Amino acid sequence: MKKGWKIALAAGAGLSVLFAAGVVATKTVFETRFSGHITTSSSDAWSVYAFDGIQLEECSFSSDKGQMLAGVKYSIEGLQPKGVVVFAHGFGAGGQRGYMDFFHRLMQQGYAVFAYDATANDKSEGDSVGGLPQGVADLDHAIQYAKQQPEYAGLPMFLMGYSWGAYSVGNVLNFQPDVQGAVILAGFDDSAELCVTEFSGQLGRYGWAAKLLRPCAEVYERLLFGKYAAVSAMSGFRKSDAPVMIVHGGKDTTVPPAIGYHKFYAKYGNDPRFTFVYKENCGHNIMRASGYLDEVLLDKIGAFLDSAL
Question: Which helix (H) or strand (E) holds 10?
Answer without folding.
Answer: helix 3-33
